[in-house]
Amino acid sequence: MIKGIGVDIIELRRIRKIMERQPKIINRILTVKEKELLDALSSDKRRIEFIAGRFAAKEAFSKARGTGIGKLRFRDIEITNHHSGAPILHSNVLTTEICFVSISHSEEYAVAQVIIESEPA
């Protein structure tokens, strides 16, 4: 049974401006593992897409949970990758739920959708 659905979209330009003004904001948004994935990226364009995608996915997760980011912190949510490349969402607030996440980018936007499903009984 679906327990929650969340979606978020963000302009890449907005993330780029934030990063130029406050580069340390990465420490508020990304976990240690996510920063390692970010460091492996070579182009600035891809790095902005990565940060924006993670930001959107974490916002979408908080919306699917029904709490918003105010009750969850960005670093309470971690998105790594399956060996196939698909994003995998981990969070200490998930108990028996199954979480599905999708992240996509265009030239101007990053968008993410999260579906939380209760584990079958």
Tertiary shape: globular
Biggest β-sheet: strands ordered side by side in the sheet: 1-5-4
How do the helices and strands follow one another from N- to C-terminus?
EHHHHEEEE
Strand portion: 25-35%
Let me know the largest β-sheet. Answer: 3 strands, antiparallel
C-alpha termini separation: 10 Å
Spans where pLDDT lies below 50 across 5 or more residues? none
Computed Rg: 14 Å
Describe it:
This protein is α+β, with helices and mostly antiparallel strands and 121 residues long. 36% of the residues lie in helices and 31% in strands. The protein has helices at 12-21, 26-29, 32-39, 44-65, and strands at residues 2-11, 77-81, 87-91, 98-105, 109-117. The strands form two sheets. Strands 1-5-4 form a three-stranded antiparallel sheet. Strands 2-3 form a two-stranded antiparallel sheet.
